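Q: I have two molecules that I believe assemble together. Could you output structure tokens for the complex as a whole instead of separate predictions?
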Amino acid sequence: MKIATFNINGVKARFETLTGWLAEASPDVVLLQEIKSTDDSFPRAEIEDLGYSVATHGQKGFNGVAILSKLPLEDISCGLPGDDDDPQARWIEATVVGTRAVRLCCLYLPNGNPAPGPKYDYKLAWMDRLRARAAELIAAEDVALMAGDYNVIPQPEDAARPEAWEKDALFLPETRAAFRRIVNLGFTEAFRAVEPGPGHYSFWDYQRGAWDRNDGIRIDHFLLTPQCADLMRGCWIESALRGREKPSDHVPVWVEIDA
DNA sequence: ATGCCTCCCCGAGGGAGA
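A: Yes, here they are, computed for all two components at once.
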């Protein structure tokens, strides 16, 4: 089973980018972030016509997450637990059953800038809620993963110019510590399990020719429970998509698992 | 760098992103 996470930066603005990629890359599961669409305005029928089941958790204007799957999506749940008053659509989870059941959690973690400030407070509070849900997944001992746009640069080698991010909410020590606390519950950060070296990024800013200068950061991650990590066959970043026509500022990150 | 692009809201110009 090949699973990709992809911050699409607007599903309507990027419709041809998305559908062309689906037809060509043929992922079994896609975890989408920043659909910037309500559930009603998501191009559900067009994507179903390509052979996918669709589950969305959208909102008007920004944020929004979705799961696409060639297998039926079961037990869909929207919204990260822990704050019923949080209006931002950043979390959706569902189960697919291939040769075994896989719990899929799709997340769009808050950016948090400027830091310090209320947006950074929201980011850290959201990460606390994420840790609570993550602990439940570990305790369940199921095949499960949490993937998406974490808006976290875990280590200096995950940025082309780490010095430029020192005061940024994506790279502040408190952000990185909160990310580590989650990973240290027992998750495998899939990409780092297979590729320890520098120079691998998943986001390049539209401005200042960041792609042409390879001035990127790695902020889209897969966290696998131990039972899921046992099944991992590979993990890679599809960076070439950033150089295509009308790209998102993020590229897909892939995991293949034996399931 | 104090966001130089690009999205969304709508139908001008501002918020948000990272």
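A: One point stands out. The CA atoms of residues 74 and 95 of chain A lie 5 Å apart.
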